[in-house]
Amino acid sequence: MTAETRALLSWIADEPRMYPEAIDVWRTTCPQHSVWENALAERLVGLVRNGSETQVVVTSRGRAALADS
Question: What is the pTM of this model?
Answer without folding.
Answer: 0.84
